[in-house]
Design goal:
There is one protein chain. This protein is of the alpha+beta class. 19% of the residues lie in helices and 38% in strands. It folds into 2 domains: 148 residues, Immunoglobulin-like (Sandwich), CATH 2.60.40.2550; 109 residues, no CATH class. The strands form 4 sheets. Strands 6-14-13-9-10 form a 5-stranded mixed sheet, with helices on one face.
């Protein structure tokens, strides 16, 4: 899988540091549903039913902020591509609740009295409500484009407001994800507040925008940046949407600031 090709081989090595900062509530027997149609396959409807169950779990746990925004975005997604998974996960994290499935998901199909088919999904879950974010702690990113050509170099300006911070940068495409900062050439460092930095940090590193499939007309990717008040490493051999947001959910909302940007490579 080609993600961002650097001018050197990058090997990410981090140590585990557990963190807490969320209040948990267990909810059981939560059932979500979504209609099956000509446009929506059973597999896609099951994925949407799972998201409906998660939203209902949030309501059951008393976390109602922006749930309508979450569900509205769900309804706009017509595929289960990796890119759309990233969008859904980011919106889910933004409502300050993280749904961790304890049992299930259990799927089945039902037909109502009018002959309409529905995918059903039942889960038991732990819902964690994060602390309120710090409004003075902001991650600002400038001079980054939404569209790049194959082979273009990615660069951008970054500034953290409110407090000195550490940074983690994730890249996701349809094939998976990767941590692109820090790396073996660009070491983990403390970024001073209100100070502009240009990425790549080192002159001997280049972020080259490459598509996984050269035959594809274009490819959508997602870049996610997380600023941290404390040096909390990301661990894990694989980087997935679930693993990244499980890591984020363990960090108090007041100790992190996030920036996301969907990008198209032509």
């Amino acid at each position: 899988m080609r993600l961002i090709r650097l001018s050197v081989i990058l090997l990410i090595s981090v140590l585990f540091m557990p963190v807490t900062g969320a209040h948990a509530k267990i909810v059981k027997g939560i059932v979500g549903e979504y209609p099956v149609s000509r446009e929506i396959s059973l597999a896609q409807a099951e994925a949407m039913a799972l998201q409906d169950a998660k939203a209902k779990a949030l309501r059951e746990a008393g976390i109602t902020e922006n749930i309508q925004q979450f569900m509205s975005l769900e309804e706009t997604q017509s595929s289960d591509s990796g890119f759309n998974q990233a969008v859904r996960k980011i919106v889910e994290a933004m409502i300050n609740g993280e749904v961790l499935i304890l049992k299930g998901p259990e799927f089945w199909k039902e037909t109502d009295e009018y002959g309409n088919e529905f995918a059903k999904c039942k889960i038991d879950a732990e819902v964690r409500k994060s602390e309120r974010p710090d409004p003075t702690f902001v991650l600002e990113v400038n001079n980054i484009d939404r569209v790049y050509n194959e082979g273009d170099r990615l660069s951008f300006d970054m500034k953290v407001h409110g407090k000195d911070a550490y940074l983690r940068i994730f890249w996701f495409d349809n094939e998976g994800g990767s941590v692109i900062y820090p790396n073996t050439e660009e070491e983990n460092m403390l970024f001073r507040k209100n100070t502009a930095y240009v990425f790549p940090i080192k002159n001997n590193v280049e972020y080259i925008m490459n598509k996984d499939d050269d035959r594809a007309g274009s490819e959508d990717i997602m870049i996610m940046m997380v600023a941290l008040k404390r040096d909390i490493p990301y661990i894990g051999e694989d980087v997935t949407y679930d693993s990244m947001f499980e890591w984020i959910a363990k960090i108090p909302a007041s100790d992190r600031a996030m920036y996301k940007l969907p990008i198209t490579i032509k």
